[in-house]
Amino acid sequence: MKRPLIRKLEKFTRLSRADKEMLVRIAAQRIRRFAAREDIIHEGEKPEFINLVSEGWACRYKTLEDGRRQIIAFFLPGDLCDLNVFILKEMDHSIGAVTPVVVSEISRAAFDEMMIGHPRITQALWWESLVAAAIQREWTVNLGQRDALERMAHLLCELFIRLEAAGCTSDHSCEFPLTQTELGETLGMSTVHVNRTLQELRASNLIVLKDRTLTIPNLKALQDIALFNPNYLHLDREGSHLDANEE
After folding, report:
1. Residues 6+ positions from 160 with CB-CB distance below 8 Å
2. Percentage of the chain surpassing pLDDT 90?
3. Closest Cα partner for 106 from 42, 186, 190, 25?
């Protein structure tokens, strides 16, 4: 079974065997494990590695001085937590584990070697970085313009489709470890409002949430409620002209 990062990058272009071997090699050089709710890196720390989430869920967040937290991104299996982050003097946000996670730490030397020797990977990672920026723009629209029901439905659609792209779904279901508190911290809603909104989606038979599993019986119906257009995820192989001739 393809590793999540390779599977995701091949939504852009088909990689060669040498490309895949390079990705597997650098991902195996330095592996760390974090418990749920543990920080992978704190705001103010100097970043020394690019973090690749191999297993589990993580998030990017900011915390106000009074303790209030805003989650501003989720990292799923196959996601890189910022390319070239090691050029920064210090982190301006924190990255924390939502679930137990396995992270591959990629050094600058290994990253530079890969970028120089594997131009197809370089192009695919540019695409990955542009998609990450597009997701951030969509989250801004979500918070600023959609109502609570649309906002929740949109997030659920996005997470499901991103997990599907990484090979982490089964039929209409996926792991869904987020608490109502974390959903509120993501969507700018109180826990009471989150609960009420989820109940409305359940009552309309649009979602089933049980035992940390999300099931979406009819994804098109949920997308319609969310005013969801998946074009910002750019999953239609826009780099097909770069395809390797070999698998």
Report:
1. 169, 174, 214, 216, 219
2. 90
3. 25
Report pLDDT for 1. Answer: 44
How far, rounded to the nearest angstrom, does the alpha carbon of residue 109 sit from its chain's CA centroid? 25
Contact yes or no for 225/215 (Cβ under 8 A): no
Q: What's the Rg (C-alpha) of the chain?
A: 18
**Distance in angstroms between the alpha carbons of the first and the last residue of the chain:** 14
Q: What long-range pairs does 207-216 form, CB within 8 A, spacing at least 24?
A: 207/156, 209/176, 212/175, 212/176, 212/177, 213/173, 213/174, 213/175, 213/176, 214/156, 214/159, 214/160, 214/173, 214/174, 214/175, 214/176, 215/172, 215/173, 216/156, 216/157, 216/160, 216/172, 216/173
Q: How far apart are CA 101 and CA 112, in angstroms?
A: 25
pTM for the structure as a whole: 0.94
Q: What domains can you pick out in the chain, each with its CATH number?
A: 4-134 (2.60.120.10), 146-233 (1.10.10.10)
Q: What is the pLDDT of residues 177-193, one digit of tens each?
A: 999 999 999 999 999 99
SS3 category, 215? strand
Structure tokens at 189: 């809603």
Query: Which residue from 40, 54, 145 is spatially nearest to 93, judged by alpha carbons?
Result: 40
- The type of residue at 78 is G
